[in-house]
Amino acid sequence: MSDREFGATVQKIITEILPASSGLTFAKDARDLLIECCVEFITLISSEANEIAEKEAKKTIACEHVTKALQDLGFQDYVQEVLDVANEHKEQQKTREKKQSKMEQSGLSEAELLRQQEALFGAAKLKYNQGPAE
Fold first, then answer.
1. pTM, two decimal places
2. Contact of 13 with 37, CB cutoff 8 Å
3. Which of its termini does the chain have fewer beta carbons within 10 Å around, N or C?
């Protein structure tokens, strides 16, 4: 995520927390400081989680590495909420609509697609055997 996208994400969070109806605004320098703090926090947790994963000879940082990093860095108060969000995400992934393959999107049977493919191969072979056009 680029700094610009990250800034937009932080701005969205700020807007959700401070709705226009509250009459409160967030100064640009305060928003920029908050973004820098967020980047620093994520970097700190990511680095610690990476070290934990490396010690376990893992090539992928898993949820348990992140929660262990939070605990090791003194952010144990956030662990349960992180686990709750991770579980919610897993549940959403289960019910998420699966993307259809191009074959499924075509609406054609496998036999019809095979017939079309053979016709295309036949046309290409004929064109190849005729040689270059003069």
1. 0.61
2. no
3. C
